[in-house]
Structures are given as structure tokens and as C-alpha cells.
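does this look right to u?? nicotinamide-adenine-dinucleotide version
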Amino acid sequence: MVKETVLIAGLGLIGGSLALNIKEVENVHIIGYDANRSSLDYCIMNGIVDEVYDDFAEAVKLADICILAAPVSITVDLIHQLNHITLDKELLVTDVGSVKSLIMEAAEQLTSDLVTFIGGHPMAGSHKKGIQAARAHLFENAIYVLSPTEKSNEEQLDKLKALLSPTKCKFLILDPEEHDEMTSVISHFPHLIASSLVHQARNWQIKHPYIPKLAAGGFRDITRIASSNPVMWRDIFFQNKEKMSRLLADWIEEMQQLKELIDTGEKQQIETYLEQSRDYRDGLDSKKKGAILSYYDLYVDIFDQPGALLKVAGLLAEHDISINNIEILEIREGITGVLRLSFQNKNDQQLSNAILKKHKYETLIEE
Ligand SMILES: NC(=O)c1ccc[n+]([C@@H]2O[C@H](COP(=O)([O-])OP(=O)(O)OC[C@H]3O[C@@H](n4cnc5c(N)ncnc54)[C@H](O)[C@@H]3O)[C@@H](O)[C@H]2O)c1
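got this back:
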């Protein structure tokens, strides 16, 4: 069987992590292109791709499938470049950009009959960037949005899904406009707010130098995403500028209303506001909800002691229980903290609960 050549253009966190998965697919030859020579060298040294190129045109001519995994503005440029490269075989192109509309607009201007585009966005990431942060498991259980175009067909979509199947993602077909509107609300805009909360704390620190020591669980939870790659997020905000501006205007208006409720002492209305947001937030975690992934969580109290985490994980490993996610919700020096262990099925959750209880751990399962 003839090997298919897959080009990954942009070998950073996402491109490198995809390469590590695509390596698992049989009969695939992976080639890489990146503007950064040291990323290419790292990929060869660590066997992440089979061959590297520092010229996009040269590499793409060899490819059957091309995954554009550079920053969004560069991805748009690379799509435009495709119109000036003479290909002699069919090429299926996809991307991984967090904002879809501009990329899909560029893809609509592709002139060659040989080129077909299907938009893509694996909705998983990390606060780290670059090839050294690439991990094969990055996309496990995450949503992978695919946006077919008028020119693409089912066979090409299936081909792409098969290539990406080792990621263990859940594919979701969305149109680019829907994608950008939804991701603005649940990802891009919260990022802006998280960053603004950090700025607010930093400003107050001038008056209260002790603030960083008080910044425990809640503040860290809500601002965790503010630690992500600033260049990538700047790109996202500007590529999705109109939607961000609209959400900011809505937010300012809502904050104005909240301010009035606080200023005028409307306790009942504030309570109702908090109740409504709690109920909606709790509903998001519900095991019954559709697209939002459901996990079976178990809360375990632990002490801040060396090896505390290892002990819990070790007990479950002895019973061959796989933990999907571990989160330390709140822990300060010397006091009890809470671990949130997430399992993929109820059986593992219940069994873990029984094992940890037997070893005198305080546990909780939320109904
Ligand atoms: N990081 C995330 O959380 C995340 C999640 C989903 C999708 N994405 C999307 O993935 C894409 C890449 O993001 P990342 O997090 O992997 O960033 P990254 O900084 O880790 O990697 C980007 C790579 O692109 C390369 N690059 C930059 N300019 C280039 C050029 N002109 N030609 C070729 N390569 C070039 C860089 O050298 C780097 O290796 C972005 O479009 C982003 O929107 C990111």
C-alpha cells in the first residue's frame, strides 16, 4: 500500500501533539515545516516527524494531506500562498486555528481544483507553547471541531477523521460562524476577563502587599487561563474582534446593572442573580448534558504533606483504576485540601470511593 504523506506546517504545541498521534496511523509518512529551525531539529531528534523542510512550497508539493498548525495569521498567509504553488496531485488541507471565520474566508479563495479545505479546531491546549510542550495525550476526550466546505465531500471528511482518530477526540461538525460565536462566549471572552481580574489584583497589591498570599483556590481557579500564551491570545482577540467587542459591550452593561443593585442595596435581586448563575453553572457539569463532556467526580480531603497525592493515586492504581483528571482545588500550607478525581465511568468512581473510605479518607460524591 502506498504511504500517504502528511505535512504539518507549524510544529509547536498543537502541531507537534498532532504529529505524535498521527505517527500511530499506519502507512503515513509525516513531514514537517516550521519557520523556526530549532523546532525542526527537535522534531527530527525526537522522532516526532520523519522529515523536515524549511520551505513551505517544497514541502506542500509532496503532501497528500496538509495540517496548518501555525498561529492564525500565519495560517491565513499559508492558505493564500497555496494559490501560487503548482501542485501535481490532490491535496486535502485542514487547520487547527482557534478562530475560524478568517481562515475559512481565505480557504474560499483557493483556486486550484486539486485543493480541498476542511476547517478544524481541536479544543484542547495548555498554558505552554512550543514543540517541547507537545504531548500525545493533549486531545484525549476533547472536542475537535471540523468545518467542511462546499467543495469537500464525506469521503474526505472520513479520511481526516481516520487520520486524527489516535487523538481520541470527539468530532463535532460546526459552521465557522457558529464556532466563532460559541468559542467567543465560552473561551475567548472568559480569557479576557480572567486577565482583567489579575490586573485588578495587581493594582490592589500596591495598597495591600499581602494580596498574593491570600490568592488561594477561588482566585487561582478563575484566573488559571490568564497564564496562557499572550501572543496566541492577542491573535485570537483580534481575529475575532467584532464578537469580542460585542461581548465586552454586553458585559459592561451587565456590570453597570450589578453596580446599581449593589449601590442601592437590592439584596434579593443580587441573591437571585447568584442563584441563577449557580444553577446554570451546576447544570453545565450535569452528566445528562449533551456536548459537554461528563466525568464522574470524587472529592477527597487530603493534607498538605509530601507524598499525599501519590498515596491516593497509588491506592487506585493497585486496583487498576484509571484516573482521567486530578485537580487540587484548594490547599494552603499545613491545612486540608481537596482533590477532585475524575473518572470516565460510574463504576470506577464508586469503586475508588469505597477503596479510599476503607483507608480512612473523607470523600464526597456530588449528586
Ligand atoms: N495553544 C492552545 O491552547 C491551542 C488550542 C487549540 C488550537 N490552537 C491553535 O493552534 C495554532 C498553533 O498554536 P500553538 O499553541 O501550537 O502555538 P505554538 O507557539 O506552540 O506553535 C506555533 C508554531 O508555529 C511556528 N510558526 C510561527 N510562524 C511561522 C511561520 N511563518 N511559518 C511556519 N511556522 C511558523 C512556530 O515556530 C511554532 O513552532 C494556533 O492557530 C492556535 O489558534 C491553540
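The mean pLDDT is 91. idk if thats expected tbh
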